[in-house]
Amino acid sequence: MSSNYKQLEELIVAGFGGQGVLSLGMTLAYAGMVEGKEISWMPSYGPEMRGGTANCITIIADNKISSPIISLFDSAIVLNQPSMDKFAPRIKPGGLLLYESGNIFKPSTRTDIDIIGIPASTEALLMKNAKIMNMIILGAYLQLKPVVKIASILEALKKVLPEKYHGLLPINQQALEKGAMLVQQLKEAVL
C-alpha cells in the first residue's frame, strides 16, 4: 500500500460532457490500480454527451469494495452549477466539496463539509490549454486528499490517453502541480 491516506474514498466527479469528467475519474481509478488498490469506476452521462451532464463515481479502497453503487460520497469534484445543486447535498458530513469557481456562481452553503473553489478553467487558459482544466482540479483534490501519488496519475495517463497524445504528459504534470499549488496558496491565505 503506497498511499497512507485512508482505506476507502468514495468520490463523485460531475459536470458537463466535454469538461473531462469521465477521464478525470478514469485516470484516478487507473492510478489506484497502479498502486495495487481495489477500484471501481462507474460513468453516467446523458444521450447528448458533449454539453450534457456527465458524472462518474470512482471508489479507491485498500480492501474489497462492497458495492459500486452509492448515494452518499466522501468527496465531490463539481464542475458546473447543475452538478453543485444535485450532488452537494449528497456529501457525507465531514466530507470535501471541491468545485471549479469560474463555472459555479452559487456554491453550497453547508457548514458540515469542507468547501473549496479553485479557478481551474482560468488557470488552464493561462497555461494555453483548456483541456487540462480537469487535471488542475485533480491536482487540487490530491493535495487535499492524497489517495494516490502524482507519479501514479502520470502512469495512469499513459493508459488513459491514446498514444498519439503522450506528448501532452508534461503539460498534464504541470496542470496537476498547478492544482496542488492553488490549494496550497488558499490554505496559506487562510492562515
SS element count, helices: 6
Mean pLDDT value: 91
- The count of domains is 1
The whole-angstrom Rg is 15 Å
Outline the low-pLDDT stretches.
Answer: 1-5
- Fraction in helix: 25-40%
Oligomeric state of the chains present here: single chain
How would you characterize this protein structure?
With 191 residues, this protein is α/β, with parallel strands linked by helices. It contains six helices and six strands. The protein has helices spanning 21-34, 81-87, 120-126, 133-144, 150-160, 169-190; strands spanning 8-16, 38-45, 53-61, 73-78, 91-100, 114-118. Helix 5 (150-160) packs antiparallel against helix 6 (169-190). The longest helix has 22 residues, at 169-190.
Give a concise summary:
The chain is of the alpha/beta class. The chain is built from six helices and six strands.
Please outline the helices and strands.
Layout: E1 8-16, H1 21-34, E2 38-45, E3 53-61, E4 73-78, H2 81-87, E5 91-100, E6 114-118, H3 120-126, H4 133-144, H5 150-160, H6 169-190
Parallel strand pairs: 1-4, 4-5, 5-6
Antiparallel strand pairs: 1-3, 2-3
Helix pairs in contact: 1-5, 3-4, 4-6, 5-6
Keywords:
191 residues, alpha/beta, Pyruvate-ferredoxin Oxidoreductase, domain 3, six-stranded mixed β-sheet, 6 helices
